[in-house]
Design a protein that fits this description.
2 copies of one chain form a homodimer. Chain A has about 350 residues and is α/β, with parallel strands linked by helices. Helix content of chain A is about 45%, strand content about 15%.
């Protein structure tokens, strides 16, 4: 397979993107198309071995410029065009998620039946990963959208994360039936009434630690807050540890002895750095890496793209969307009795 | 001053509540009224020195029973009654927040001008604390409520947290003007238009680590998700560390040398365990401790109650509510031009 990697987006572009793509190409034997400024890319390539079959496509403008949202010349847009044309099997970008989403919608479009594409983040947990969606594409949701996210998350978890029968939780501030706002209450009733496969009811953020769910469904506002809050707590914890270890000769010595293990915990505890976020409901495989992604994180995002391709994610998603009963849920704010798709 | 402590609520009741109250009484020379089962309380008191002026008030029924929401005999309700009668200056409880809120609303009522009481949690950050509100009392908010939370948070931060000119952030999924849902967009415009003192614009959860804000305003759903997500990440980080330290003799030895410092970081990183949550907009000082609070956390909640009392929080809050310009914000879903209080 071949992955198109946007080397222009992200805080450490192009170096981290090129290095991460090369890592992935070596580890997983993936063909690479690097999108960006050819001179910059060549300069990065000079550091190491040039993979066979490497393509470089010129795409100069910075895609994180807001005016570039619909810029067909941005690296993200060119990558989406390559995927559409079949010249690449997937796109990986560390540009602003809104930019990648807009480019994907424009050049790849939605899968039939997908009303609202969602961003699905793989959040590392003690045992494995939990897929959280939506984490930012849809800041205002209707109950029907949450039901659709549940369906797309279920397909992705089984197709790309090797989860046999995914357990789906609906993010809420308590697990009791009475908790939450009108949005989660309506989505909950709908998932229960239709016997949604694997639906495990309301789940608090604690479910990520307890391993009770494989997929956590949320509106894009709450999901985004969840992921960023976890990132914040992890980074504060890591900073606190660094300070604590430096406090005395005993603790400094302790750190020297435990350094490797502590570093591994830190790396894993950062959901943003570790996992990429997949765009679901799009007619193409697109993975967004964290803007601060280092080469390992970029490599991990490319691996996710490979897993999605290898797991026939798109075909299974299209089938899933086709088979999902047309769950009609009353729109919030509508008079009772009226439903919309 | 005298604090009424509900010894019936929480996972470690009554032991942790009694022990924590005794700690606070010793450290801060606070008079105590313990509410609960007198025999149980006496059994706990037998372990240590009995403080002078201790009162014990019988209040048997478990307040975390949902049917006890309006139970006037619960320890939380009796505590609120004592505060109302002037027999105690503040109430501390580790019962379910909904129960304590209901008891407080019923027996103490709202401050004049407070439309929506809010739960304000002090989240520990690298430098100090950030006050996050609302963290769960109001799962559906209108823009005007967020403006009111900003005002109450500002008063609390200056009266009880020694913050001179609190910087107020509005929780959002990005700091750019265009980000977020209709709710935060409308509240943002309103805070800007009225030149709200100290308003610093949109803030992501990252602001807790960067120290950019002293108060973070959110609807009760997002605020609750934020606090619980941070708790989850911290606990996963701590668990990961424990496992990592146990991995080899080197890391075990390292842990022994750094144990004290690591323990302090762990304790501080857990927002739920460390800080209590104050009910703002209520006509009385009420602090809710975490349900899993240990004696130190209970003691910390009692200290918060003392700080609120000593800082004349209620008087300042009442004045703040009175002085706040009657910011009228269009209700979401209303036709343009129509405003509500």
């Amino acid at each position: 397979m071949r992955v198109a990697v946007d080397t222009q987006g992200g805080d450490h572009a192009p170096a981290a993107l090129v290095a991460g793509a090369l890592l992935a190409s070596e580890r997983y034997r993936i063909g690479l198309t690097l999108l960006g400024h050819p001179d910059e890319i060549e300069a990065e390539l000079a550091h190491g071995r040039r993979p066979t079959g490497l393509d470089i496509v010129a795409a100069y403008r910075r895609p994180d410029d807001a005016s570039a949202l619909r810029n067909p010349g941005s690296a993200a847009a060119k990558g989406a065009q390559l995927v559409r044309a079949g010249a690449a099997d997937a796109l990986v970008s560390a540009a602003d998620t809104a930019v990648v989403l807009a480019a994907s919608l424009r050049w790849l479009g939605r899968l039939a039946g997908a009303r609202r594409p969602a961003i699905a983040a793989a959040v590392p947990t003690p045992d494995a990963f939990v897929l959280v969606l939506d984490v930012g594409a849809n800041t205002s949701c209707q109950p029907a959208h949450l039901v659709e996210f549940a369906m797309m998350g279920r397909v992705f978890a089984s197709a790309c994360m090797a989860v046999d029968r995914p357990r789906i939780g609906l993010l809420n501030i308590g697990h009791e039936e009475s908790k939450g706002n009108e949005l989660v209450q309506a989505a909950h009733r709908s998932l229960l009434e239709h016997g949604f496969p694997g639906y495990a009811g309301f789940a608090e953020p604690y479910a990520l630690a307890s391993g009770d769910v494989d997929v956590l469904v949320a509106d894009g506002f709450s999901g985004n807050i969840l992921v960023k809050s976890m990132e914040t707590a992890s980074s504060m914890f890591a900073t606190g540890l660094r300070t604590a270890f430096a406090a005395s000769w005993r603790s400094r010595l302790g750190y020297l002895l435990a350094r490797a293990q502590v570093g591994a915990v830190r790396a894993k505890a950062d959901p943003g750095q570790y996992g990429g976020a997949a765009l679901l409901g799009i007619n193409g495989v697109v993975v967004v890496a964290h803007s601060g992604a280092d080469p390992e994180a970029v490599c991990s995002a490319v691996r996710q793209a490979r897993d999605a391709h290898a797991g026939s994610m798109l075909e299974r998603m299209a089938r899933g969307l086709g088979e999902t009963p047309d769950i009609r849920v009353r729109h919030l704010g509508d008079p009772p009795g009226r439903t919309k798709g």
